[in-house]
């Protein structure tokens, strides 16, 4: 495992290397990394086995859990590591792992969850070079040369060759005969989070021409960036560009969503939190896709709801939760409370009617907008299909929904100092509290919550 030097950072990047490479493939990326990022290389193949994606994901998650600090992190998977990254992210978002903080990914010529598109003759050729304990240096040199578009600097070339020689040939054989042929589509599903895919023009099987089709079904938010003059070994051929994209990706996420504080992330990752609760909090922490098509409301209604949310639930500076998008999802999934006055339309219909009525009279000045909100609460306005009383009733529900959506986010729970979600746990008995008192906290609780209570040993 390779870590960048200790320094204050905002986000960790876990680099999962490609076939034949190891944690050292992150070195050049780490050297070029933005100071806000801590880059950690992960060894995947040093145990000599790569027969299944979950086998490699076990290794990756064990090492990520050991290195994670509870703060936000990106996954950067290269080639084989890209296929493993998909499974790692699925498991983190499922809440089954003692890890929290996944915010997105940058994938480098990733192998797909489906069987890797590799010609039979190339697979046979690679297997022929992996029959001993390790590849020979000559075969390692040939492997590196075949996977780059232009000669590398001597130090990078030697580092890549050394990494290939170090890897157990048994892992190569496992991957070529089993792991790369595995169809992990059902294990991975759809990963709806921010993803950037970098791919070289001179990479035949996993390059820029192939990647849009490879990632479309798995990563609905993926953006594919074509890299001219680059082959398959992006960590060595273009480490500066990889580092720049990592920084750009983090900046975009940081600007668009609130960050869960590190101490709170460690609590969520701990054994005090049930798998189902961790899963829910991990998914709620992901940045919203503000550009996606609405599922229930129309775009104009979503914009009106955003304008209302900005005044009703102000979120302060920094990234904000897109409460309107989350309510649209709630309506699409039938997640409302189901209560409404007799004769009122169903919630999705009521939202559309209410938002249309508000949009028709929505003023441009903030002071007037606030006055309209007070009027909606007290007197109501005429709304086709709802009436004056009906829109007052609906608007009360809408305000509750907006507040619930804000409060459900783990960053909001941290903001109000609520850690009551951490009393279940993954053990045979609920974790619970030993001490409940104003201004006091137990040792596991975030330090901002009060004075630590230490049990008397006597």
Automatic annotation (TrEMBL):
It holds the Pfam family Abhydrolase_6. Residues 13-245 form the AB hydrolase-1 domain. Gene3D superfamilies: alpha/beta hydrolase. It comes from the Bacteria. One of its GO terms (molecular function) is hydrolase activity. Keywords: Hydrolase. This is Alpha/beta hydrolase.
């Amino acid at each position: 495992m390779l870590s960048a030097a200790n320094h204050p950072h905002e986000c960790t990047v876990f680099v999962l290397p490609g076939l034949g490479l190891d944690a050292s493939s992150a070195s050049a990326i780490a050297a070029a990394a933005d100071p806000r990022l801590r880059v950690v290389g992960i060894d995947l193949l040093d145990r000599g086995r790569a027969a299944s994606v979950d086998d490699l994901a076990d290794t990756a998650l064990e090492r990520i859990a050991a290195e994670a600090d509870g703060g936000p992190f990106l996954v950067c998977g290269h080639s084989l590591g890209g296929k493993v990254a998909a499974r790692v992210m699925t498991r983190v978002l499922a809440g089954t792992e003692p890890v929290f903080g996944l915010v997105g990914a940058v994938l480098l010529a990733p192998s797909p969850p489906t069987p890797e598109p590799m010609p039979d003759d190339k697979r046979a050729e690679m297997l022929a070079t992996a029959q001993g304990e390790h590849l020979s240096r000559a075969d390692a040199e040939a492997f590196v040369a075949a996977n780059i578009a232009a000669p590398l600097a001597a130090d990078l070339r030697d580092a890549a060759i050394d990494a290939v020689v170090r890897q157990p040939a048994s892992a190569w054989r496992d991957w070529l005969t089993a792991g790369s042929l595995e169809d992990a589509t059902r294990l991975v599903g759809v990963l709806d989070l921010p993803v950037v895919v970098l791919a070289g023009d001179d990479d035949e099987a996993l390059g820029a021409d192939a990647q849009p089709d490879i990632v479309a079904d798995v990563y609905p938010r993926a953006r594919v960036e074509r890299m001219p003059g680059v082959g398959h070994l992006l960590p060595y051929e273009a480490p500066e560009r990889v580092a720049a994209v990592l920084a750009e990706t983090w900046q975009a996420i940081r600007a668009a969503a609130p960050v869960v504080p590190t101490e709170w992330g460690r609590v969520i990752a701990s054994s005090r939190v049930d798998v189902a609760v961790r899963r829910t909090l991990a998914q709620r922490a992901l940045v919203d896709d503000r550009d996606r098509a609405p599922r229930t409301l129309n775009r104009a209604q979503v914009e009106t709801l955003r304008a209302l949310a900005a005044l009703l639930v102000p979120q302060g500076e920094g990234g904000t939760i897109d409460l309107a998008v989350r309510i649209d999802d709630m309506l699409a999934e039938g997640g409302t409370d189901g209560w409404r006055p007799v004769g009122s339309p169903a919630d999705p219909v009521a939202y559309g009617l209410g938002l249309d009525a508000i949009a028709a009279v929505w003023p441009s000045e903030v002071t007037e907008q606030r006055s309209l909100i007070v009027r909606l609460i007290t007197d109501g306005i005429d709304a086709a299909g709802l009436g004056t009383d009906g829109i007052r009733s609906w608007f009360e529900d809408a305000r509750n929904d907006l507040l619930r959506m804000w409060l459900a986010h783990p960053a909001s729970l941290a903001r109000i100092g609520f850690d009551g979600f951490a009393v279940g746990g993954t053990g045979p008995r609920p974790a619970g509290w030993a001490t409940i008192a104003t201004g006091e906290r137990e040792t596991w609780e975030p330090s901002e919550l009060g004075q630590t209570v230490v049990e008397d040993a006597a």
